[in-house]
Amino acid sequence: MDISLDLSEPHSHLVQVSLRCTPTTPVLRLRLPAWTPGSYLIRDYVRHLEGLEVRQGGQRLLPCRTDPAGWRLELPSLEPLEIRYQLLAADLTVRTCHLDGDHGFLALAALALEVEGERWAPHRLSLHLPAGWRPFVPLPRQADGSWLAKDFDQLVDTPVEAGPHHEHHFSVAGVPHRWVCWDATAAADSLLKAHPTLLQDVAAVCEACCRLMGESAPAAPDYLFVLHLLDQGYGGLEHDTSTVLQFSRQTLLKPEGYRQLLQLVAHEYLHQWNVCRLRPAALCPIDYHKPVIVSGLWFAEGVTSYFDQLLPHLAGLSSEDDVVHDFGADISRYLLTPGRFHGQSLRQSSEEAWVKLYRREANSDDNQISYYLKGAILSLVLDLELRRSGSCLAQVLRDLWVRLGRWGRGYREHDLLEAFSHRSPALAAVLPAWLDGFEDPDLPTYLQDVGLRLEPQQSLAPDPGLRASPQGGALEVVRVLRGGPAQVAGLVLGDELIALDGLRLRKPEDLAPLLRAGQCQEITISRRGRLRHLAITAAVPAIERWRLLLDPAAGPEALQRRRQWLGVVPC
Question: What letters, b where the CB count within 10 A reaches 16 and e where it falls short, cover 348-374?
Fold first, then answer.
């Protein structure tokens, strides 16, 4: 199977695709993936596909559509086929395609048709680029300039970046690594000029990942980092031998911004073990055309999210105070998310990823909890519980890697429970309850084990239980807290705030100074063009945020346990 991608007219945002294959059956089916591994949402990539045309010899064949992203072909012969179409590439995320005059980025799951009978056959990839552009592809390069994927799975696991970018090289335990950064609004390599030790620091984080896994070298034979530096944005997507990252220039200007970039690097790099090779059995093999319930996403993403904050410290690039601050921010966000009480258990959060996590709405915090966030908090608890038994979470991860991940065998829930209970028998009973229930583990007591304590910060400002945002010249309600004062008063999403006690409201910050806790006040709103006057009684939240602090009363044993915990390994 040969696939050729023409990016030579980048200003059109269109990628011209040509597939060539020799059929082996008189009836052939074509399907475009509906999602990309690592991002659990049906994205219907087919909506960007245009002008599908199939030719055999000089004859044009008419494919019959069998479903929104599938076609059936009846072939007059078994002679070679050419399949042509174009794809709109105008969505700049790590899981879609984007092409303009500055660069091209292609997530091949969004673009490559799966040809029936060819999934496990080699796929040869060719690129046609504008003058002055260079390709960055994490596949073996062939003598003719093409790249060869061993099968369709490896092809769609391959992100393609192209443009007039520079490529930088470094190694991790002798394994070659490449770093490519696209920043359309700044001079080439502006990030490296601002942070001259970046590549050295990235290499140190990668080496820390290897130490965490108990390995002398990375799992991948080589590795490609692609970074999109944007005005706003944050995220990453893992691949077997590469990752694509998006990060905000504005975040890099903050004191903690550089550390957050290294945490993102650590997260996606660790995925080459935990997710890409040590993966849930439900994803072995991957079905690209429908959702698959994966109850273990809390382990895949939560454990990785937990370690991504510790790995820069293990690499010598963050302080103890940094780690405590960052974990404290996550714990506070978790404890103040209402959805953790009744919206979703951790198992439900994993199973409902397809319909909730990637489809956030104004009320999402009331009815769901992220398996990234709660999974990381539970991972902290599991690590500290395991340490009471002389083990640690890193050891459980290594056990699963050696027994399953190294051999490409998927894990089921009983494999996880067995791995945890083998290292700490007490977890055989409590871990299922933590996954299915809504009660939190005794987090303060676990934190005391390592000389840390949680301190609530009381709020002094009255809270109306709503958030408002300027929308088209109006101050519109964009969040109504479930059970809060605004909902009790009768406000709903989309209401326009006009006045409080007769005083005009023009911007969000106008509201707070006028609120009086415990006092009934008149709020004037406009709903569907009609003025309404409602009675609202603002409250003072019991806790505005939580802080994680070093406990000055911690004894020497707790301090020793904290040093061991921050060291991650050895346990």
Answer: bbbbbbbebbeeeeebbbbebbbbbbb
Backbone φ and ψ of 163, nearest 5°: 160, 180
Closest CA to 232 of 43, 36, 92, 40: 92
Can you tell me the distance from the alpha carbon of 119 to that of 130, in angstroms, rounded to the nearest whole number?
30
Per-residue pLDDT, 296: 95
- Tell which residue, 51, 56, 115, has the closest CA to residue 81: 56
Q: How far apart are CA 433 and CA 431, in angstroms?
A: 5
| Res. 432: pLDDT tops 80 | yes
User: What is the per-residue DSSP string for 386-412?
Assistant: HHHTT--HHHHHHHHHHHTGGGTPPB-
What string of DSSP letters covers 515-537? Answer: --TT-EEEEEEEETTEEEEEEEE
What is the number of other CB atoms lying within 10 angstroms of the CB of residue 318?
22
Give the Cα separation of 468 and 522 in Å (integer): 17
How far, in Å, CA of 363 to CA of 389, rounded? Answer: 41
What values do phi and psi take at 533, rounded to 5? -120, 120
Model confidence at 220: pLDDT above 60: yes
Contact 441, 381 (CB under 8 A): yes
pLDDT in tens, 144-176: 999 999 999 999 999 999 999 999 999 999 999
Rounded CA-CA distance 444/448 in Å is: 6
97 and 33 Cβ atoms separated by less than 8 Å: no
Q: Return the H-helix or E-strand segment holding 332.
A: helix 320-335
DSSP state of 91: -
According to DSSP, residue 457 is labeled E
Query: What pTM value is reported for the model?
Result: 0.95
Backbone angles phi, psi at 135, to 5 degrees: -95, 145
Residues 6+ apart with CB under 8 A from 359: 41
Mean pLDDT within 240-257 = 95
